[in-house]
Amino acid sequence: MLRSSQPLTGPNRRRCREDEELLGTVLGQGQQRGFIIDTRSAQAAKQARMSGGGTEPKSSYPQWRRLHRPLERGRPLQESFIKLVEACNDPSITMDRWLSRLESSRWLSHVKAALSTSCLAAQCMDREEGSVLVHGAEGTDTTLLVTALAQLILDPSCRTLGGFQGLLEREWIEAGHPFHLRCARSAYSHARLKQEAPLFLLFLDCVWQLSRQFPFSLEFGERLLLTLFDNAYASAYGTFLCNNEKERCLCKVKESTHSLWAWLNQPGEKKKYLNPLYSPNTLVIWPSVEPQSIQLWQGLFFRWIRTSQYLDEAWAEIQRLAKST
Amino acid sequence: VENVQLLDRLSSRKAALGTLYLTATHVIFVENGSETRKETWVLHSQISSIEKQATTASGCPLVIRCKNFQVIQLVIPQERDCHDIYISLIRLARPVKYEELYCFSFNLKLDKEEREQGWKLVDLNEEYNRMGIPNNYWQISDVNRDYGVCDSYPTELYVPKSVTAHIIVGSSKFRSRRRFPALSYYCKCNNASICRSSQPLSGFSARCLEDEQMLQAIRKANPGSDFLYVVDTRPKLNAMANRAAGKGYENEDNYSNIKFQFIGIENIHVMRNSLQKMLEVCDLKSPSMSDFLWGLENSGWLKHIKAIMDAGIFIAKAVAEEGVSVLVHCSDGWDRTAQVCSVASLLLDPYYRTMKGFMVLIEKDWVSFGHKFNHRYGNLDGDPKEISPVIDQFIECVWQLMEQFPCAFEFNERFLIHIQHHVYSCQFGNFLCNSQKERRELKIRERTYSLWAHMWKSRADYLNPLYRSDHSQTQGTMHTQIAPFNFLYKFWSGMYNRFEKGLHPRQSVTDYLMAVKEETQQLEEELEVLQERLANLQKSHLNGNKVKSKQQDQSKQLGLSTSNNSLANTPQEYSNDLKSFPSRSPSQGDEEDSALILTQDNLKSSDLDLSANSDQESGVEDLSCRSSSAGGCLPSEDSGKDSDEAVFLAV
């Protein structure tokens, strides 16, 4: 699986030999074809040509099949998040309006779309045995969402606590997701920042959906996901600072801050994040993306609204039982 | 009929070919050729509707919809056969006489005594004794011993000590269907009680001395409170409309010291339509999130569930926190009243959250108090306007509570699903007829078996591994302050999409934890045995005796390896619905999966009691794809323009 940003085809349909060669060699070892998953709609991708971007033309990349799976990003995604949080916090909504409020935020539709696209990417690799190139426009948002989720689906090593941290480092932090811009003020702020968008939260929500559908297959639990969410927005650690490696170097992040992973991995801390039901599953985990299978992440969205006492007690009981083996 | 196709409900590409059989009690589809001889059995009683669709090139489609939400799609090759099957099923699914029902031919091969014992498992007298009755305030009355006062009530009822037969009879004449106020639940810690009845025949101004005396007696049976709540579970408008028909509700002016309260739960017709709408949403082929949420809201189903729950919470609070007794009624006192009283009892008393207690609760508030099982669930062919998912709603309330309080119930989701199944299956005699009187006339106890005894035998399958009787969640009243929140009510896909394997988590946490518990228990028992033996050895060593060493049996493999790891699940069709590339390679892998599932499956989790061979749950049915989930959020591609897509998708 590869990721990139959009090719700069432009209105004149420019070509680039090196780019074509690169993708050609990827398919080198007797593979028939590859798949390009473009996270923009065909329309949007075409329009991007006007401003210098575009898509890979079939003629120049003959062995690659291009699939468009539009995923929401940017301002609309932030609005979706804000609407959802507003709905969750609104005590005046009666039962006969709740679901439509939930629906009008479209958050769950975004979760469904993200999971579907990631599954598609995974399917291309696992079932069709083709290489996959994922990109949107910049390659820093929906691209990373897809590649990270696809790896969780495909690769059991990403589902261990250590493996997941590695996945985050690789596919989000080093890959240059602009955390500083994206995770700025969150849902309550009135400042509607242009660059703010909850892609990382969307990713965590999708991971939570996976953990619900495959309760034995992830070595970590909800608590880790909530901690990551918190730290992406505000943290005592330097892990999610800045927007990319270059900035982190310039700011000397490694020299002047502590790593979140170092803290999480201490034995005393670590055990809080482990899933007591974990049992290594070497197979690919294919989630159901039917609406009935996708649920609202109550642990996050109702975290401060309702007590989690009874669910916590249930987890304590599960822990107790699992330990007794 | 041979060469019938059984379609996968959502992926029309996947059809199984086999033979269809119709017996006196079941429809059976047997798949051709598979070594596993996969069979699908459906009880006639479960059939809710049969639809013949337009003939296509491949044959005549027939859709069977069941009361337990299973949907079977068949394609019959010959139109004539299809028609015959259709006509037969219509007749078979609408029995006219009780004797046609499965319970009269179903044979568990128990002897007469065992059968009788089975019926005695749940004893209501014992239950009232457990509550602390009879006592200074409450007595048992046999005024209805020949069903002379009220034919839908049981022969034994509990009323306040001060109430005479005269008062009961007088009150019964003032109540719809003669269903006078009687005790449902008594709280011995504070003497508050829940009583139930039907609506008074008060019209606009009628009064009845005995009925007023009855309510006064109920109030006085609780010395800790100076008033009585009267809860009418209907919407105010409906109740007022009833007044024009000479019925209505209690006037606070006429009854001393009552506080009257409407809690608007809609009637059986609204509920029937609500369920219908929700099932239509479930029927959608790969809906978008939008379609689903809108459809669900439009059905109003969860709103109704919440209304029932809220009513139960109100009553439970009145009893537990205020120490005030409550009289509950609706119109006839056998639908909403039953729902609300049983929810309230469950919230108040942890006993009803145990398996046995729950069986008792259903016997008490549903069976003995004359809930019209026959009319509501269509044991026999009857008026379609009487059909309504009343007990289904109650069962769902319990499930919603289980989701919020995972440690509080001794039983699990499967227990609830199986009970619902048997409400419609008519395989056992518990849920037949409309009243105790009818059941006695038909000699149900002598001629059929009790579901409770049958389920009790398999109770290990129904246990909740997180339940501990000493847990804080299982003590006392359930603290439902959080319950009024809307978002806590979830769509119960385990019930309404029960037969769609692809939708549910592949790995059952419940089953795994139960296995863990069992193994731990076995190990502890072994430890005990070993310790005993050690003690004996030490003793006999002293005595110089030889001790034979016994062969220890290895603890059984309980599948602790979350054997489901080997359940390779297969992907859905994640791509565009109309033309997708094959999402299942016809590889060996998939067949292996099926075989694995069959052999090491927790078959215990399957509904083995549905009928002899039904394997709906056994997982033999393949885990395969459902049709695409592409849904509404992805605009349909204009594949004509995008040459890449067209070529690709043609593969």
Please report the distance between the alpha carbons of the first and last residues of chain B. Answer: 36 Å
Proportion of beta-strand residues of chain B: 5-15%
Strand line-up across the major sheet of chain A: 1-4-2-3
pLDDT < 50 runs, ≥5 residues of chain B:
546-567, 576-651
Strand content of chain A: 5-15%
Rg over CA atoms of chain A: 21 Å
Q: Give the number of domains of chain B.
A: 2
How many E-type strands of chain B? 14
Structural class of chain A: mainly alpha
Q: Which of globular, elongated, flat, extended, rod-shaped describes the shape of chain B?
A: globular
Biggest pleated sheet of chain B: 7 strands, antiparallel
SSE string of chain A, helices as H and strands as E = EHEHEHHHEHHHHHHHHHHH
**Separation of termini of chain A?**
39 Å
Note the quaternary state here: heterodimer
Kindly identify the CATH topology of the largest domain in chain B: Protein-Tyrosine Phosphatase, Chain A
Count of helical stretches of chain A: 16
Describe this structure in words.
- The complex is a heterodimer of chains A (325) and B (651).
- Chain A is built from 16 helices and four strands.
- The relative contact order of chain A is 0.11.
- A four-stranded parallel sheet of chain A has the order 1-4-2-3, with helices on one face.
- Chain A is mainly alpha-helical.
- The mean pLDDT of chain A is 94.
- Chain A has one domain.
- Chain B has 651 residues and is of the alpha+beta class.
- Chain B folds into two domains: 4-94, Pleckstrin-homology domain (PH domain)/Phosphotyrosine-binding domain (PTB) (PH-domain like); 112-491, Protein tyrosine phosphatase superfamily (Protein-Tyrosine Phosphatase, Chain A).
- In chain B, helix 9 (301-322) packs across helix 10, helix 10 runs antiparallel to helix 11 and helix 13 (390-404) packs antiparallel against helix 14.
- The longest helix of chain B is centred in the last third of the chain and has 35 residues, at 509-543.
- Mean pLDDT of chain B is 82; it is low at 546-567 and 576-651.
- The chains are: A mainly alpha (325), B alpha+beta (651).
- Chains A and B meet through strand 3, helix 4, helix 5 and helix 16 of A and helix 8, helix 9, helix 19 and helix 21 of B.
